[in-house]
Amino acid sequence: DGKGKCWYLPPGKDPLPFRLYWSYLENTFNDREELKKRGCRYNRNLKKWYVPSDLDYDKFTKWWPESLKQFLFNDRYAIHRHHSRTGQADVYKAYDVIDDTIFAIKYFLNDIPNFSTTSLKKSFELEMNALLDLGQNKHILTIEDWGHNEETDRRFIISPWIKGGSFDRLIGQTPDERIDQMVEMMSDLGLDFDDDDIKEMKEEFDDTDWEDQHQIISGVLEGIFVCHSKGIYHRDIKPGNILFDIVFKNESEIILLPILCDFGASKFFEEDENLAFERDKHTLVSLRTAPYRPEFNTDSKLGSKELSSQNTWDLFAWAVLSIELLANEHIDTVDEARTILDEKVIPKVGPEVAALFKSALAKNPDDRPQDITKFRHDFIELTKEI
Predict the structure, then answer these.
(1) pLDDT confidence of 282, banded at 50, 70, 90?
(2) For a tag on the chain, would you pick the N or C end, based on fewer CB atoms within 10 A?
(3) What is the rounded (10 degree) CA torsion for 320, 91, 141, 131?
(4) Contact at 8 Å (CB) between 64 and 73?
(5) Cα 42 vs. chain centroid, distance in angstroms?
(6) Which of 245, 366, 255, 379 minimizes the C-alpha distance to 322?
(7) Which of 81-95, 214-228, 240-254 is predicted most confidently?
(8) Would you call 235 exposed, middle or buried from its count of C-beta atoms within 10 A (0-12, 13-18, 19+)?
(9) Distance, CA of 180 to CA of 46 (rounded, Å)
(10) Residue 267 belongs to what H/E stretch?
(11) From its phi and psi, is residue 262 left (phi > 0), alpha (psi between -120 and 50) or beta?
(12) CA dihedral of 86, 89, 93, 98, whole degrees rounded to 10
């Protein structure tokens, strides 16, 4: 803009990629003195107030232009960048403009092929209710706030920002890549590392360390156990739905705490419920991700049996995830998981622990563990001496 001597974004363009340059305000006439006292400046050419680059634009949300208020949720959570898109939602990194805390906003899509509006609404309600029912548990993502954007007809859930990324970042990495990732995460927490520190870490790093892997596998199992004990089947356990919080063990050592998230395909059940569900009660069964859930045709005899065995699906997924972590390989099929279990995991954990993985992956759902409490107890006991 030659007259205003500034650059601007034309209407219709997405403002979010230009977040760093947001500065101008609207509806400021009655608040000019307050804005001036707070350090804002006035562009006489454009006749607009703006926030200088040394001030935080998020502290002036009251005067944001209407085109930018779509990025403000519940009047306090300001989106800063798009993080990822899942099958059901966009995930954004946001800041609480009141408490200066980082949060994640899961903004549910309102148009997904092959899913009705009713199914999408149900997915949101399932996730929100599951997170609320599960309450405060270190292995379950907590919910901070939620809502519905009437203008876009999209629902959203707000939860704490989990710093360590997701499970899939741990699979298929070289030792150097794993160290670089850990250094990046710890640097984000304010820890400094020089080249000698990183070199020493790479020399001492053992990517087959059972203690670290056992801690992750056990944590995921504990999260599943908590869900089932509260009457909830997750039904979509996969690497992208397991996040890692970073917890300091001491001044120089951290541990990755697995946290289950994305309960959009979850199911509530009663302990005495007959698991022979009617077909119209599981429209979200199609939210399957291979190879983390049994593959079946709902109209087949096996399909009917699987639909009556949904209590086994979460442990099925846990077994695949565990094999991927222990072998440090991405797995595409369940048959591949069974092969890798025999060839690479048994030598590491022994036949008894491997037998638990095999039972969870049984082709016949009747042969899978039916009592997660017993399964959890057996796993804890058998892995004590490894």
Answers:
(1) very low
(2) N
(3) -100
(4) no
(5) 42
(6) 379
(7) 214-228
(8) buried
(9) 47
(10) strand 267-268
(11) left
(12) -150
3-state percent helix, strand, coil for the chain, nearest multiple of 5: 45, 15, 40
**Cα–Cα distance measured from residue 263 to residue 271, given in angstroms and rounded to the nearest whole number:** 19
Tell me which residue of 278, 316, 315 sits closest to 295, measured CA to CA: 316
Residue 190: band (very low, low, confident or very high) from pLDDT cuts 50, 70, 90: low
**Total residue count of the chain as it appears in this document:** 386
Amino acid symbol at 54: D
One-character DSSP codes across 281-345:
G-GGGG---TTSS----TTSHHHHHHHT-GGGHHHHHHHHHHHHHHHT----SHHHHHHHIIIII
Of 283, 291, 273, the closest CA to residue 340 belongs to 291
pLDDT of residue 225: 97
- Structure letter (DSSP) for residue 166: B
